[in-house]
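Predict structure. Input: SWIM-type domain-containing protein, 249 residues.
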Amino acid sequence: MQQPDYDLSKIKFATDGSTFEKAVVLYESGKVTQFEEGIRSYSAVVLGTKPYRVSVEARRYDYGHCTCYLGQNDTLCKHMVALALFVVMDGKPLTDEDKKQVDSPICSGDLRTLEKEELAAVKKSITDALRYTNGYSGPSRTWFAYQNSLQEGCNRLSAIVSNLPVNEQTAHLLVDLLLRLDKKLISGGVDDSDGTVGEFMRETVEVLKAYAELDPSCSLAFQKLQGKETCFGWEKPLLELINDKTLMI
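Output follows.
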């Protein structure tokens, strides 16, 4: 079978949680039937409340068609995602990790340092995820697709942050990430009208506060925020921590 231009991680991070979960159930229940491969496309009959004819392109899994109500209204549906899962997994079972979605950053609670190679890999993954949060200057008709890109970028970043161990090294990484996002919002042309990026930043600040509780030396990373003027004052809770005389480092 020809390989599509997307993979499982693309489907996970670019699909909303509810649709992805329902698609996983369809896929794991063997509801994707009569699979056929076309020219840079795939089709199948996906069994839902009734059999639906479904197709997706090899270029993008959200480009296709489904005979269900959502599909007929040009909305990505669980049947299309289930077919895309069938394509990228080639019918193989999904692991628990494959099915795990992260849409908000959390503190791992894992107190350790990263090896040099691990640190380099994390930095690269952050840079790759940030590519989904570029500025916007397109026509209004593509604004929703742009917002989906922002959400995908924040989902990818959330997964990275949630897997990081807790130490001063990773606290510096997260502070730098917040500063990079702040710059994108202030002067990089990012249109965060629905607050996707801002909410991710607020949640990451909460992660950093948890870092400081677990390892007070993490608050040393917050010192680079002194004298900074950010887009919505997200740095204030972190600066309060380093000014708190009860915080012993």
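Confidence is low (pLDDT under 50) at residues 245-249.
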